[in-house]
Amino acid sequence: MPFAFLNALQNLLPPEALVLDHERLRAFECDALSGYRALPLAVALPASEAEVVAVVKLCRTHRIPLVPRGAGTGLSGGALPVEGALLLGLSRMRSLLALDPVSRTARVQPGVRNLAVSEAAAPYGLYYAPDPSSQIACSIGGNVAENAGGVHCLKYGLTVHNVLGLRLVTTEGDVLTLGGACLDSPGYDLLALTIGSEGLLGIVTEVTLRLLPRPQTAQVILAGFPTVSAAAEAVAALMAEGITPAGLELMDQPTVRAVEDYLHAGYPTEAAALLLAEADGSAAEVEADIAQMRELLLRCGANSLRVSRDETERQAFWAGRKAAFPAASRLAPDYYCMDGTIPRRKLAEVLEGIAELSREFGRPCINVFHAGDGNLHPLILYDANVPGQFARTEAMGLAIARLCVAAGGAISGEHGVGVEKLDAMCSQFGPDELAQFLAVKRAFDPQGLLNPGKAIPTLHRCAELGGVHIHGGQTRFPDLPRF
Amino acid sequence: MPFAFLNALQNLLPPEALVLDHERLRAFECDALSGYRALPLAVALPASEAEVVAVVKLCRTHRIPLVPRGAGTGLSGGALPVEGALLLGLSRMRSLLALDPVSRTARVQPGVRNLAVSEAAAPYGLYYAPDPSSQIACSIGGNVAENAGGVHCLKYGLTVHNVLGLRLVTTEGDVLTLGGACLDSPGYDLLALTIGSEGLLGIVTEVTLRLLPRPQTAQVILAGFPTVSAAAEAVAALMAEGITPAGLELMDQPTVRAVEDYLHAGYPTEAAALLLAEADGSAAEVEADIAQMRELLLRCGANSLRVSRDETERQAFWAGRKAAFPAASRLAPDYYCMDGTIPRRKLAEVLEGIAELSREFGRPCINVFHAGDGNLHPLILYDANVPGQFARTEAMGLAIARLCVAAGGAISGEHGVGVEKLDAMCSQFGPDELAQFLAVKRAFDPQGLLNPGKAIPTLHRCAELGGVHIHGGQTRFPDLPRF
Asked: Are the beta carbons of B180 and A101 separated by less than 8 Å?
C-alpha cells in the first residue's frame, strides 16, 4: 500500500517537491518540542494549492495520514511526524499575494514568515501585530495552526484576532473560502474554528491578515521588585487601573541573572523579579501611559525603575527578555517550556505553587512570561542524558498544567497542545467537551487522516489516565491534587 | 404528541415560566424583522440553567424543535417562532453573576441587557464595548447568537472579540464550558464557533465578557461633503492614513434631512453626505487624532466641518445618527434594513450600485451606516399595505446582498442571517462551504431540533434558487448579474 502510494506521489509531484530518502527525512523528524522524534513516511513540499489538493486526494484514496508542517518552530509537537504518515511541508508556498493599505490587509501563502509580512507592510506605515518569539523563522501557516501570540498580544490579540480570511483544503480535496476581507462573515465561524486547530481540520493554503498602523512611538519601563509576589501583584494592580500596556513581561531572579551572564543587558540582578512594561501609540499617549505606570509600579513596591530614553535603549531593555530562552540553555543542558494561562489575580499564588512543585519534583524551574495576560512560561531545567530526568520533568509539567486548570486557567496560552499536552487536556476538559471536539473533528475529517494523535485526546486515553467518569459522576478527576 | 409534550412541560416548569394560551403567545410571534410572523407551540421561560437543561431534554425526548429567544430585538428573524416548535425565552435569566475588575471580566446570564453590563462596570472605570443600536433593550444572549456589533466595533471589535467564555447546553442536555477567563483556550475554538451561530448549535446559559477601561474622553467631528463618493473616499483615505477612529459613520442627504425634520440635530442639510468621526482615549490622544482627522477630511473635500466642544455637544452630534432609524419611519410607512459588508475601497462604487438598483426596482433607499468597517445599512422604503411592495423590496434586498458579495464583501455585518438572508447565503457560499456548515450542525444537533430553517440554507434550496451546481462545475451562479 505505501509502495503504490509513494509511486503515485512521485508521478504527482516534481522531484524537488519530494523527500524520500532516509538521510534527508531526518531533517524533518522533529519540530521545536524537545524529547520527541519520529520519521515520516515521506515529505511532500507542494508549491501551489493545486498540488496540495492533489496530494490530499491521493492520501485519501490510499488512506495515508497527513501531518501538515510550517517552519517547524512549534513548541508542542504539532508538526511532529507520525509514523507511516506523509509530512506535508508548506514552506515552498511563500508568496505575498496582495497588500491593500486601504483595507489594511495582506493576503499571503502559508509559508510566508511572520516577520516578512511586517517588512512588506512597513512602507505603508502598517505591520502585522502577533509577534511570537520565533517571528524571524516561523510561518503564518504555523501561526494559524497554533493560534500564535507574542509579547504584544495583550494589547493586539492573538492570531485569531488578526486573521480575516483563509482558504482551507479539506480531506475531500475541496477548497473552502472562510471569512474574507471584512470584519464579519455569515454562517458558522469556521474561520475561528480553524485557527488553532493544529492541522486537524484541513490544510491552510492562503491567509488574509489584518494589518495595523504602526504606533508612532514606544517606551518601556524596567522595574525591579523585592519579591516575585510584589511584582505579580503590581501586574494585577496595573491592569485593574485601566491601563493596557503594549507588553507586560515578568522575569524572576534566576532568569535575570542568566540573561545578565549571557549578554549584559544592564538588568538589576539584585531584584527578585523584574517587570518590563511597554506603552505605544502617539508621543502624548505614550508619555501619559508611562507616567501613570511609573507612579503605580513605584506605589506597588518597585525598588528600582528605569524608563527607556530612546529607541536604542528600548531595544536594549527588550534584548534581555528576548534572550531569556537561549540564556536558560546555559543553566542546564536542556529545558522544557510550559505554557499555562491563569487569571491575572492568581499570579502570585500560582507562582508560589510552581515553586513548591519545583521542590517536590526536585527540578529547578525559572519563570519568564507574558504577565499581562497571565500566560506563564515556566522553564523546567533538566539533563536529557541523565536517565529519568526527562520523565520527571514531563510529570512536573503535567502537575503545573493541572495547577493552572485548578486556578481557573488553561493548559496552553499560545503554544498549542500538540502531542505534549494531550494528557493535560484530560484535566482541562470533561468528557462532554472532549466528545464535542471529537464530533467536530469527524465533521471535517471522518476518516481521521489529518494529524492523527494530536491536540485532542481520546476519551479512552483520559479515562485510563485519570479515572475520568465518562458517563458522568460527581468527581471527574479523583486523582487530581487539590490546590 | 404535542399534547403529551405540553403536559410534561407543565410538570417541569412553574406556571410563571410557561405561556400556552393563544392571546399571550401573540406577544412572541415575531422579533424586530418586519414582514414575518409565526405562532410558537408554546413559550418556556426558564429561570435557571437546570431548567434549560430539563426543557432541552424534554424536547429531545418528544422530538419537539426549539427556538431560543433573547430580547426579541433581532433584525433578521433569528428568534422568529417556527410553527410546532417551542420558543425558549431566556429573558428571566438576567443575573449579573460576577464582576472582576482585576481580570476585567463580567460573568452574566444570557438575559442581562447589553447596557446593564456597562452600568454595572462603571464604578470600576470599565465598560463592555459592543454597542448595538438596541443596547438599552437587547440581551447579551442575543448579542452572542448574532455576533452583534455597533458604532464602536471598528476600534473595539464585534461580540466575538469581547466574549471570553460561555456555558452552552447541547441538544443532549449536556453543559459545555467553552473558553474561560483567559485570552485563549486549548482545543478547537468552539467558543468562537458558537458566537454568531444564531441558536443553531446550543443554548447559551452563561457568558463571560471582556471589559475595557472606559476612555478618559472622546470628541466627534461632523463633516459635510458635496457628494456621497467624496465622503466614501474620505473614509478610505482616513483608514489608509493609519487612523482608527472609535466610530466612523456615513449618512446620505435623505437621511440627514429626515433626521433634521425629526429632531433638529443641527446637521447641515445642504450636504450630499455627512461623516461622523469619533476619537477616544486620553485627552492628548484625542486632541492629536481629531487634528489629524480634521486636516485629512478637509483635504478630502469636506465643505463643512465642526468638532464637538464638550460632552453635551458630542452627545447632540450622535443623537441625530442614533435617531436615523426612527426618523426613516417618517419617510414611508415601512422600511427594510439591509446589512451588507464590503471592503472599504469599494464604498463609492457599491453606493452607486445601490442607487442604480433603487431606480431599477422603483423603491427609494436611504443610507446610514458604519462606514469605517464597510458595514452598509441601506434602508429600503415601502408600504406593506400596497400589494407587491414588500415582495419587490425583498427582491431589491437580495440584489443588494449579491452586489456586496460581487464586491468581495458579505451579505451580513452584524444582524445575522436568520430567515431573512437564507437565499442570499446561496450567493455568499458555494456548495462546499454550505456542506461543511451542515456537517458542523450535525456534529452539534444530529436531530436538527435547534432553530430549524434558520441561518444555513439547504443545498437543495440553493440549487432551486440559482442553479447552484452541487457537484461542481465552473459557474456556480449562472443567474447572478455581473457587476
From this structure: no
